[in-house]
Amino acid sequence: MSTFIDNQNWRYATKKFDATKKVSDTDLAILKEAIQLTASSYGLQPYKVLIIENPEIRKQLQAASWGQTQIVDASHLLVFVNHTNIDETYIAKFVDHIAETRGIQTEALKGYQDVMNANVAGLPADVKNTWASKQTYIALGNLLAAAAELKIDVTPMEGFVPAEYNKILGLTEKGLNASLVATIGYRHEEDATQHFKKVRKPLEKLFETI
């Protein structure tokens, strides 16, 4: 566990990536699996993760990201996109997947399916979209932790225009919405931010036992 804490102290939101260094396919596979294994509400995973490799598209997305250089300089650009309408059809497919994976009948999951239909599918559209978007942040947490273990830098980014991302990537017509961006790669030696002392609330102010 001490190694985990050391790695969390090592990581920071990288401001300048070394564009000449690339994350290996092996390490990328580990990061993808870490995201895949992330906990989500009901296990629904109401999102996808787009890995943007096309340099021209990345340039377009940079313009929609306040010109931030990480978008084009990082080894990989990940865009977390949430489903905008988790309806009864989506939930039914999820239940079928559970049944197939665990070798049980879908009828045995009817109670669980009914709960999800009532608590998720039945939500107002705006509330459901917000809920789905929040799930992507849990996945980001796993990505940050796994990347730090591999000494891979990650910059989580909210500094972008979702509507422009949706347009560039053709997301709206697919029932998707850009929720969160993460750039991954390796810090540039000229990135002065890596030498800054980490600033966090003291434990006694962050935690309160009741």
Automatic annotation (TrEMBL):
Its cofactor is FMN. Keywords: Flavoprotein, FMN, NADP, Oxidoreductase. The keyword NADP applies. Pfam families: Nitroreductase (PF00881). It comes from the Bacteria. InterPro entries: NfsB-like, Nitroreductase, Nitroreductase-like. GO terms for molecular function: oxidoreductase activity. Residues 10-186 form the Nitroreductase domain. Belongs to the nitroreductase family. This is NAD(P)H-dependent oxidoreductase.
